[in-house]
Specification:
258 residues; alpha/beta; 2 domains; 7-stranded mixed β-sheet; 7 strands; binds flavin mononucleotide
């Protein structure tokens, strides 16, 4: 199985490169041939939406002086994809978006894709960006498997999880499972964890994983009282967003200072 493993970080070392490396290692250990691509080392100009573009029906591109078309070939030739993207302002960073805008998809579909979104600051956007990445890959005909939102609160476990998921990608999802149309792709996508959450769900998730992080740091006392606050939020549906934001800030502060 040929896996294309793409990292969208401008850094060679860091959260998203580390997660990508771990997932790629898992896939290799399971016997896959893995090609790692660091987008920061490639020249990728933004799509210019040219008139009469050849790209929709053929492996061609009017932009000739960068690596976009070569990457599009790799994207189409792989049997499975791993992609790790840093989160900037609650969305995908520009490098990943420019890459995605230059991709097109021609023949087979239903190949597995393991998306990872790494929000290394407050964590906000880890789910939102993961949804955007997963939606784009669904549009390109991939079948999303095991989507991973990663933040500072779950980073430690995330590295071993990424390795395990890279292995599973090869051992359990090696056969393409074609999707009959985009609607079926949406149905599959929305059956997966995280994919139907809104930004308030994301704040509640961040609070929960920060509390779990506090427990791992041995701060059970603090974790218990913050967990009670989290449970109590269900009594305030009318101003849940405001209260969820306050709790996220509190749990983040507790995690960062413990
Ligand atoms: C312009 C910019 C915007 C960012 N916005 C967010 C954000 O919305 N949420 C977050 O958790 N982290 C944010 N970060 C932090 C990145 O997610 C973090 O640096 C990420 O892990 C990328 O690092 P990496 O290249 O080592 O993976 C931002 C960083 C930059 C440079």
């Amino acid at each position: 199985m040929k896996i294309l493993a793409i990292c969208g970080s401008p850094h060679r070392e860091g959260l998203s490169p580390g997660l990508l490396k771990a997932a790629a290692e898992g896939a290799r250990l399971a016997g896959a041939e893995v090609e790692v691509v660091l987008l920061a080392e490639k020249r990728i100009k933004p799509c210019i939406a040219c008139p009469s573009p050849p790209c929709w029906t053929s492996m061609e591109c009017n932009i000739k002086d960068d690596d976009g078309l070569h990457l599009r070939k790799l994207f189409n030739e792989c049997d499975g994809l791993i992609i790790s993207a840093p989160v900037y302002f609650l969305g995908l960073n520009g490098l990943v978006k420019d890459f995605l805008d230059r991709m097109r998809y021609y023949h087979s579909n239903g190949k597995p894709a393991l998306p990872i979104a790494a929000a290394g600051g407050t964590g906000k956007g880890c789910v939102k960006a993961l949804q955007d990445l997963s939606t784009s890959l669904t549009v390109f005909g991939f079948r999303i498997v095991m989507p991973m939102p990663v933040t500072r609160y779950n980073a430690e476990e995330a590295f071993s999880q990424a390795k395990e998921r890279g292995r599973k990608l090869v051992e359990e999802f090696s056969e393409p499972k074609p999707l009959s149309n985009l609607g079926e792709g949406y149905a599959w996508l929305y059956s997966l964890p995280y994919m139907t959450w809104n930004l308030v769900d994301e704040l509640l998730y961040l609070s929960r994983i920060a509390i779990e992080g506090l427990r791992r740091k041995g701060r059970d006392d603090l974790a218990e009282s913050l967990y009670s606050e989290l449970l109590a939020l269900e009594n305030y549906p009318e101003d849940l967003a405001v209260r969820a934001m306050v709790l996220h800030q509190k749990t983040m502060h507790a995690f960062n200072t413990s």
